[in-house]
Amino acid sequence: MTSDSDTQQGSVVFISYAHESEALRASVKALADWLVQRGCRVLTDHAYIYRPPAQGWQTWMLGCIEQSGTVLVVCTPQLRARYEKTAAPDSGRGATYEGAIVTQQIYDAAMRNTKFQPILPDDGDEGNIPTFLKPWWNGHRFPGGNDGILRMILDGSGDKPEKNDPPIDDVKSFTCEHERLAAEKLAAADARQFLVAMQQEFRKRFQSEPPCDAAAMVRWFAGRESTDVQQLFYLVRRALGPFPHGRHEDFQRKLAEEAAVALYCLAAMRLVDTAVARANEVRPGDYLLLVPRSERVICAIIATALFGGELHLKPVEASGELQPEYVFEVHIPVSGDRQTEAFERAAFTAVFENQADAPQKFVEAAPLTPRERARLAARIDDIHDRQRRIALIVHGLQRVEVAAGLARNHKLPVLFPAAEVPTSEFTTKLLGMDADRLMAEIGELSIYLTARTDFASQPPSVPSSSS
């Protein structure tokens, strides 16, 4: 995504929005990434989360508006208040300044406007559109209406999509690895009946038209607030329940369950507050994080939401409980001056403990040999290359900073449960749902995956290809 550019005006899009929540910031970034995948040059402030642009905010915003052929104004309650100057004077100066520029430019053009286009989130209220932009409201919403937004941009600039542009519902357009995984699973031909069941349940639950395809469904999930997650859990379970399973449908059932688990994980990730997570970092950039609980599945959800990758949950054969593939628990057996050696040795053991030549977990904390370091690096890199999320949950480490070297060198999240290290008040706020309830909700899904009895007498009907 570009942040400063001297490109042709018609090909540049600037997105103006108010920082109301991390969920909104994430959904705006998803829209920007989606447009970039389709050839647009998109300007947003996401590159300046930690440091302002060198030229200062006002000059940067004015430059973005001047060089853009289209300015998408994401209309929310706070944006309208700031654009119309009814918000508190010390809140949202960026959106307030952008609103002043937009208003003045429309006024200078004798109330003619082809540049500033109001858009709404899928569940947004038209009442949030600033009064002076309402004459140009044309029903564009995101992410469900991304296709229409792209057409509006291209029609305004005179550009046409390249012949080799990906189709609008191409699952490969996702930049988030887990969203792409969920879209691929849901778009599989043999999972179509599950997608249809999702759409039918969506109509009943939300009394509105559902996303039209697998990619749109995933984008809709990815744009939900943490307060919506419980309904997302219900949606997946109700859709999975009536899906037929038996000797002749085992393969289809397997693909439906894989899609359901991927969507369930995506929903759970919406519970993670990224702003709180940044406050909980031991040191920014070190991949060390304080977390509220030690359960592997909860730590996997947090790590994937913050650091990316695909999250794969698999039922444990004995119990049927869902557990992540590559989230390892590391137990430090010694204290004192050998904490670094003990941590590296225990991490090596945890990663390789299923191999016959793996050392015992609680052996003496001898430093890793060069060969062992190479083996550990190769294994971590291989897991990364497969887009899987790998993380360590560490128990018994007295000085958490000794894990920084391994974590930073391998971009490996190392998580410290709150019960074992001093934490801040933010730790318990990292998840938007009580941890015990989240574990219970994941347990409910596992029942649908391991029980092989029908939850409804009739499967959902599948429209013919001509419908």
What does this structure look like?
With 467 residues, the chain is of the alpha/beta class. It has three domains: 9-157, Rossmann fold (3-Layer(aba) Sandwich); 171-271 and 445-450, no CATH class; 274-431, no CATH class. The protein contains 16 helices and eleven strands. It has a five-stranded parallel β-sheet with strand order 2-1-3-4-5, with helices on both faces. Strand 7 and strand 8 (322-324) form a beta hairpin. The protein is globular.
Secondary-structure-derived class: alpha/beta
Molecular shape: globular
Radius of gyration: 24 Å
In percent, how helical is the residue content? 40-55%
Q: How many domain units?
A: 3
- In DSSP terms (H or I, runs of 4 or more residues), the helix count works out at 16
InterPro entries: SEFIR_dom, Toll_tir_struct_dom_sf
Organism: Candidatus Accumulibacter cognatus
Protein name: TIR domain-containing protein
SSE order and pairing:
Layout: E1 12-16, H1 22-37, E2 41-43, H2 57-67, E3 70-74, H3 77-83, H4 93-108, E4 116-121, E5 141-142, H5 146-157, H6 177-187, H7 192-206, H8 214-222, H9 229-240, H10 250-269, H11 274-280, E6 288-291, H12 296-307, E7 313-315, E8 322-324, E9 327-331, H13 339-352, H14 370-385, E10 391-395, H15 404-410, E11 414-417, H16 435-450
Parallel strand pairs: 1-2, 1-3, 3-4, 4-5, 6-11, 9-10, 10-11
Antiparallel strand pairs: 7-8
Organism: Candidatus Accumulibacter cognatus
Protein name: TIR domain-containing protein
Pfam family, one: SEFIR
